[in-house]
Amino acid sequence: MVDLISSSSNRPRIMRPGEDLGAPVQGSAGGAAAAGAVAQAAGDTLALSATATALPEELKGGPPIDLEIVAKIKEAISEGKYPIDLEKITESLFQDFIDLVA
C-alpha cells in the first residue's frame, strides 16, 4: 500500500535559517548567545600553503592539449566526416547500464 505524502505525519519539517539553533541550554544567556556563536563561526578562515597552491611543472605551460588534433577533429565534425561507430556507442551504453544495475 502506498501512503500519500500529504497524509504522512512523520514527514520532516523544513527549517528556516536560525531555527536550527535549538532551545537555549539551561544556565545560558539565551538565544542571543547561540546567535553569537553562529556569527562567530561565519568568520572562519582558511590558509593554503605555497606547496598546495603551486602548479606541477607539466601544467605551468597550460593544459596538456594537442591543439593540432583538436583542430583536425573540429574540421572533420564540421565537414560531417567524423567517424561515428554506432555499434560501439550502443555497446558502451548497455555496458554502463549493466554496471549501474548490478
Q: Any overview of this molecule?
A:
It is built from four helices and no strands. The chain is mainly α and 102 residues long. The chain is flat and about 55 Å long.
Summary of the model, kept short:
The chain is 43% helix and 0% strand. It is mainly alpha-helical.
Give me the secondary-structure category: mainly alpha
Query: What is the residue-mean pLDDT, rounded to a whole number?
Result: 74
Can you tell me the overall shape?
A: flat
Tell me the number of strands.
0
H and E string: HHHH
Q: What's the main sheet like?
A: none
C-alpha Rg, in Å? 29 Å
Continuous helix count:
4
Low-confidence stretches: none
For the record, give the distance between the C-alpha atoms at the N and C termini, rounded to a whole number. Answer: 27 Å
Residue share in helices? 40-55%
% residues in beta strands: under 5%
Features of this protein?
single chain, 102 residues, mainly alpha, 4 helices, 43% helix, flat
SSE layout:
Blueprint: H1 31-41, H2 50-53, H3 67-79, H4 86-101
